[in-house]
Amino acid sequence: MAPSTPQIVQEWGPPLALDQQTDVHNARLLAKIRKEIQENGIVRPKGYNVSWHSNPEMEKHHFGHSHPMKPWRLTLAKSLIMSYGMHAAMDTYLSRKATKEEMEEFHSVDYMNYVKSAIPVAPDDDFPKDFNLGGTDCPIFEGLFDYCSMYAGASIDAARKLCNNESDIAINWSGGLHHAKKAEASGFCYVNDIVLAILQLLRKFPRVLYIDIDVHHGDGVEEAFWSTDRVMTLSIHKYDGIHFFPGTGDLDRTGPSSEDNPGAHHAINVPLADGIDDEQYVWLFKTLVGKTFECFSPSAIVLQCGADSLAGDRLGRFNVQVQGHGACVDYCKSLGVPLLLVGGGGYTPRNVARAWAHETSIAIGCDKTLNPIIPEHTPYRSHFRHDTLCPTLAQILGDPRPNRNSVKKVTEIVQSITEQLRFVNKAPSVQSQHIPPDLTAWKDEVEDGFREEMQDTEEYRHEKEEGLGVAMEH
User: Fold this and answer.
1) What pLDDT does residue 432 have?
2) Helix or strand or coil: residue 223?
3) C-beta of residue 181 within 8 angstroms of C-beta of residue 167
4) Where are the beta strands (DSSP E) in 186-288?
């Protein structure tokens, strides 16, 4: 009898999902993450608190095979952040869904009713659509209302943590969908979570500065706060006035034309051409944000970190790298006021994951000690192509795109905005309000339930016992 031999052609089976791995595999992965935490010096920051808000169920939604927006980019970002062990330095929250009533604090009832009841159909651009839903840009897909309520809920909860002094920097990378209007979807955005978050912040903070570094103009947020002096919007974006979406955001768009309108001069737009690089972009950001901060004196900042302004994006055409993008987060953090970080655009998932992981490391203060080589145990590591967290411009593009932003043009932008800021009054016209106690109590009760459920898990107890992310004396 011939001896038995191993089967040469193995029977194929799909790889296990992250939540279907064996206990042995999970234990090995956790050991590797613990090692990363120690080697990278990841500890909870001293003197301030960072919270990370997310809902993994959001990652499962799908806009369509050819659509640029891929919620899977959140899976890639989460896997990179957690493979480094950065979660150990933050308060992590599984965000609840926003209710329809909460989303109606900005959006119209008719619009939200339509979003909730819309039936998935194949995208069609041949006929006008109710509320701009159902075309190729904003398709109606399975679970649309849940998708919207999850990312909106995460931004609302993040804002509440800032209002309650439970967090100093709150992060929701699933948010930042800045194009959605009061009664209309736009530019892959259905519910404007940023507006909903700022409305929460205004219950406590007299003035909020909204900054947008997405490659597209933050038109939805600007429009929502067009007539108030309690919110100043500052958007840095590509603008050609003709072809590039959404076609708004020129330098002269500074707010309502009437000086009697409180919102006059409270919209700042920085229109750029293709090819701007790190040096020019960071200088422009720090110069304009610094002048705006000094003049407006905001009590809190919301920074939309759209990653389509990075080199190599599927839709963007800038030469900005991960380091330059992150420098904007670092500067806002240095200003020392409560900071909400949200995501936004970004249509090359590996770029998005790198940027938001790097910016998370800046938020918790471990960016200087972080190993630039992506951990070997990172799920989907092959999707990053290069093994470094911050690849070079040559690795990303080969040859950089020509920079069409002359020194003269950039200087004129700064001069124009400096003149605009002369007309800004530091004192808001509307007094701030405390969060209604009945609403706060109801939300706190829900969150207490989530917290107790998490603390009952064996993994949570083990992490606390081991002191992961806690600075130790040697």
Assistant:
1) 45
2) helix
3) no
4) 208-212, 231-238, 267-272
Q: 163 by DSSP, 3-state: which?
A: helix
**pLDDT for the residue numbered 461:** 58
**Cα–Cα distance list, 9 to 12, 323, 438 (Å):** 9, 46, 64
Strand ranges (E), 16-117: 50-54, 91-94
Cα–Cα distance for residue pair 224/237, rounded to 1 Å: 18
Say how far apart CA 175 and CA 95 lie, in whole Å: 12
Question: Do 198 and 159 form a contact (C-beta atoms < 8 A)?
Answer: yes
**411 backbone dihedrals φ, ψ, rounded to 5°:** -65, -40
Eight-class DSSP state of 92: E
Angle subtended at Cα 264 by Cα 263 and Cα 266, rounded to the nearest 5 degrees? 70
Helical ranges in 129-184 per DSSP H: 144-163
Confidence of residue 239 (pLDDT cuts 50, 70, 90): very high
pLDDT at 434: 45
pLDDT value of residue 396: 95
pLDDT for 446 beyond 60: no
Considering 107, 178, 179, 217, which one is annotated as catalytic? 179
Long-range pairs, 121-126, Cβ under 8 A, ≥24: 123/64
Of the candidates 35, 34, 95, 49, the residue with the CA atom closest to the CA atom of residue 462? 34
179 is catalytic: yes
> 3-state DSSP call for residue 301?
strand
pLDDT above 50 (res 408): yes
Pick from 365, 352, 257: nearest CA to 306 = 352
Cα(144)–Cα(177) distance, rounded to whole angstroms?
A: 14
- The answer to whether the CB of 218 falls within 8 A of the CB of 172 is no
CA distances to 239, 279, 285, 322 from 327, in Å? 22, 10, 9, 9
The string of pLDDT tens digits covering residues 104-141 is: 999 999 999 999 999 998 898 888 789 999 999 999 99
Bridge partners, residue 373, by sequence: 388
Q: Round to whole Å and give the CA distance between 199 and 191.
A: 14
- Residue at token pair 């899976």: 75
Digit-coded pLDDT (tens) for 17-72: 555 567 788 888 999 999 999 999 999 999 999 999 999 999 999 999 999 999 99
Contact 227, 256 (CB under 8 A): yes
Q: At 171, is the secondary structure helix, strand, or coil?
A: strand
